[in-house]
């Protein structure tokens, strides 16, 4: 996805033409970028060949999931819906892990009957439910224990999950207690220690601290886990001010760790696989000058992309056509929704925008469409994927009459 002759292209398609043909706002993915990300992730960690379970919550479009599956990845799911979806798309049960603090009895039952690789347990009560079901079905169910290592991932507090004040996982004392209680259970096989400390992590230090915390548990408990599931969280570059996580250092450290402990590694990446594969194309409806602000009111709102409103997240916005004849100006990009938090970005020294211009909001492939809603009774945006010069619509258009 890049400019050619001042026009923004997604592979071989001029983005302006997509808006002309299909309207706006619309999500557009690049097939090539997705495949590149998958291969890059695999290559970065090839010394220890982890099982890569794509975190389905970040994007569950069927076409996207099928591409991910075809490239050999498994799935990390967090609900009955996600589990049923990946099974129906042909993901192999032995490549599926199931996370989440609040799995209901019925959800556990379904997962157990499908023989998935691991149910990652987050409380002793959940483990007891699994044991009950395993006995009922006369099975030995494989589980992972999710550790809360009390480590600050140094990311947005709303997506930080590894501190003791966060609801996730079991602290190290409870992990040891559970190991002692359940290690000889007839119906439970504890195979994995899992951990996920947060999302959009851009530094290696929190991951290194996780490895240290796991090492401590391994030596204290003297328990042999077949798998260590290090979760996801790998950060991407949303703007000039932040950086992507450096995989090379991470890879070296995990390789050493896996050799030392003779264990297989699982990852659950979401954002790092799909985050930068999509843009949200949108049109400028109005320009409004108010006091010393210039509001650019676009036709995408917080119902289409909630990350800026919810997490103060930065998504760069670029014009689909660069015009050197235009002066530079400052802008406040906002949506049409009746909430002050429906704002996207403030920019300085930006190509002057006028009514009718078309723009792309970048890096919306993860937690974009999945967090969209019909708020203000607006239809959700349609999704397209571009492969070379082929355009394919990959989600249904919601008809206004249906949602009315
Ligand atoms: N594994 C577990 C157990 C998780 O809870 C998550 C994300 C992942 C893996 C994938 O993390 P990733 O590689 O995508 O960072 N809506 C927020 C992000 C919420 C993340 C929730 N858990 C956002 O838009 O930033």
Would you kindly provide a brief summary of this structure?
The chain is of the alpha/beta class and 404 residues long.
Descriptive notes:
The chain is of the alpha/beta class. The chain has two domains: 2-29 and 275-403, Lyase, Ornithine Decarboxylase, Chain A, domain 1; 100-267, TIM Barrel (Alpha-Beta Barrel). It has helices spanning 15-22, 31-44, 62-70, 80-88, 105-113, 124-136, 172-182, 205-221, 247-261, 271-274, 307-311, 400-403; strands at 2-4, 7-10, 13-14, 26-30, 51-55, 74-77, 96-98, 118-121, 141-146, 188-194, 227-229, 264-267, 278-290, 293-298, 317-319, 328-334, 343-351, 358-361, 382-387, 390-393. Strands 4, 13, 14, 15, 16, 17, 18, 19 and 20 form a nine-stranded mixed β-sheet that branches. α5 packs across α6 (124-136) and α8 (205-221) runs parallel beside α9. 45% of the residues are buried. Ligand LLP binds at residues 55, 58, 76, 99, 159, 196, 199-200, 231-234, 268-272, 307, 311, 366-367.
CATH topology descriptor of the largest domain: TIM Barrel
Radius of gyration: 23 Å
The CATH top-level class label of the largest domain: Alpha Beta
Compute the number of helices: 12
CATH architecture of the largest domain: Alpha-Beta Barrel
The description of the largest β-sheet is: 9 strands, mixed
Number of strands: 20
Number of domains: 2
